[in-house]
Amino acid sequence: MQNKIAYIVLVLIYSFQTNAQTETVKVNSLEEVTITSTRIDLPFKKNSRTITVISSEDIKNSAATNVADLLQQIAGIDIRRRGTAGSQADLYIRGGSFDQTLLLIDGIKMDDAQTGHHTMNAALPIEVIERIEIIKGPAARAFGQNAFAGAINIVTKNELNNSVSAHVEAGSFNQLNGSVTFGSNLKNSNHIAHIGKLTSGGYRINSDYDNSNYFLKSVFNKNAQPIEMISTFFERKFGAENFYTTNPNFNEYEETQNSLIGLSTTFKSNNFKIAPRIYWKRNQDIFLLKRNEPNFYRNLHISNKLGADVNTSYTSSLGITGFGLDVSQITMSSNSLGNRQRFMATAFLEHRFKVFNELVDITPGVAVTYFSDFKFHAFPGIDIGCQVSPNFRLYGNAGYTYRVPTYTDLYYRDPVTLGNENLKPEEALSGELGGKYFSSKFNASFALFYKDASSLIDYVKDVESDPFVAQNLRDLYTKGFEINTSYNFTVNNLQQNLAIGYTFMEDEVGNLNLNFSRYSINSLKHHFTSRLMTKITKSFNFNVIYKYAERTQGLSYNVWDASAVLNLKQFELSLTANNIFNEDYIETGIVPMPPSNMLFGLRYNFI
User: Fold this and answer.
1) What is the spatial distance between Cα 465 and Cα 340, in angstroms, rounded to a whole number?
2) Which domain, by its residues, includes 69?
3) Tally of structural domains, the chain
4) Residue closest to 313 by CA, chosen among 304, 300, 322
């Protein structure tokens, strides 16, 4: 560990010394990015929340080949994977559970009433992503109940010009990936299509997978009133060895499908912006406890969500008012969870105004949600920001949030697990204080955060031979801080970037008199990430990523990844190496992560 930290220090020293001898290069500034995952559109620089933006250029320069691996590089984001290609990845932010973080695609909520285990199955291929907006802390005021600990909005590209590219990758564990991405700009419409296939024989017994990705986005009537259509279909077939049990003889297996279709548009006038949208989302999950004996134990869950929302903002001399309405109908058919229905309606209201010669902005707001099975709940909150200088901003926010139980929490039954129909929603009060500094060469941010959560759901029992039963038992107090920096410099007039992030988090569990608990707290107590993105020549990029993690229960690990990309006009050659030093570690459960592995890639741009 000491040698690895010394290496990072040497890189830092070299970077600053080299930069002193070279000229400054202009870089794209995030302050020009408008955050679209809120009802009041604000430049990134003027937002009063802890928000991280991963741009398309960041994605291109990273060593990641999928969204799960990409988010692993962000301090404070805990992606607990169960294999390569982001297999069955669970998403955690600031100690929240996998059911407490909301994923959105172009603002469409991808929550799953069955379970949060399949949230990341909806993540898009990185080729079609414009940027990723990460909101840490309570976001229920903006999105509703599933944004308990935060939200991640994946923003897709609007156009790819007239282009066709093919991508092939091959590497360790018989990984073989292929994709084709198509872009077309017509006189009155734009179209983007992507088809991908990812396969692997697996790095251990029963860890093979066969994944298919289909994506289509079109913008119609773009010269008058543009209408956007997005459509996705993702299928995952994978060996799930010990994903849910510890029995080595079961050979678990799972197949999931995730599909989405949405239509949206935006009407704008001098003071008004109205953005209506309708969408349909479908999830399917088939689970076999014994892969080779499908009749031994089989679960089939199919859920559908039909939704419509409208977001409106109005600008006046009193400030900016954002308001909206979101309604959805959820239906589920399951051999183990039963046939279920839930109607949800959420009304949002917030107003941003400025005081003290517009140096301070205040944004109070509230969301009120009606659940057909849990009645009314409210999520108030407030953001306060102070523009200390053109480049430096202080901010604070606080919010109240809920999470209603999933159908798995409520109704699941097997010989060792029992749901509980009498569960109540989880709830929490969260707050943070932070600051942001932006310049063309150096960006930095810090935040102190606190969360007081109660009625958290755990599966518990008193006698070892009894089944686990879901109960609202746990109180959890979380506090911590995070620091993120990004430094742009040049070497021989070639642009480089060094980014470092660190998050410290401490959990305190309320008094519990339990003999056996399934969901023990195992958050990332220390999380350090660093990324060096360097241009060796104009056509050759090299990237190194280092991650150190120490969990609450004491497990720690160091992981190094790297990538190299060589651009040769229409050809692009890539090499991605993960877990370079062959670290032996586990991110969740008892599933060991893959040993050292490599992936070779070739991309050809036809147009």
Assistant:
1) 30
2) 2-605
3) 1
4) 322
